Amino acid sequence: MNTYIALMRHGVTDWNYDGRAQGHTDIPLNREGEWQAEAAAARLAGEHWDVIYSSDLARARATALAVCRRTGHELITDPRLRERQIGPAEGLTPIERNAIWPGLSLGEIPGVESNEQLAVRGEAVITEIARRHPGRRVLVVAHGGLISYFLQRAVGAPHAISRNTGITPVVYDGRSFALAGEHDYRHLLVDGVEYSGEKLRLAGYARERGLPGLEMDPEQARDLLLHSSAVESAWVEDRLVGYARAFTDRVRYGYIDLLYTAPGYQRVGSELRRRLAERFPAVRFGSRGAQEATGA
Predict the structure, then answer these.
(1) How confident is the model at residue 295 (pLDDT cuts 50, 70, 90)?
(2) What is the SS3 assignment for 130?
């Protein structure tokens, strides 16, 4: 008797925007994260669920509670569903971590839960949940690292961090897990485009492929993004169709110095600007030598 489990990552936080390692630090959802949680809840409320679980950390719990308010379920929290225990690296960006532990990945830093430990913990708790509810449909709201390393260990999926509130379904047949569908985030799309304020996502793309509209070494492009105050990006699946880089004192003044839109997606430029203005409502953004490109 197969148990169906939908694994959903929590909504976005300000630390996700900045690329700070959250771990067990109890960071709340930001305004966009709350919107993501409600968008996911509106979608999931149209499906049948027998039980809903989440990590006990605020960002996951608030995401799950948005669903529970629509479905009437009592939320069950389990601290074993928490993100990786990051210890001395919590709250640090990749640049800050590399300055202290040069050349070490997050899971290799002394005092940090290793990739293997995280995968084993994730498999243990999700297997226990599956066995507790044979033949049922279960929603589990957890964290990007835990979900990714569980999927890598349990079903052989490549390591990839889920979109915030993205959903990956698996089934458990009493012996093992199998994927039951693709990673799904269609509730996040606005006119077919997904928007993100996460630095690490855009920086990772830049490191692999460079930035369209800029003739620059990929490593330099990555650093250019990581040293900014904020970025916004627009995506169609995994294709980058727009991005903006901004600097701000977060109190009064700011400027956008890079703005790119792909051919046919000029409309996303105004949305990227709007998102930056919404993130920093007290700041008046100007253009300081702004480099704008359409990719044409």
Answers:
(1) low
(2) helix
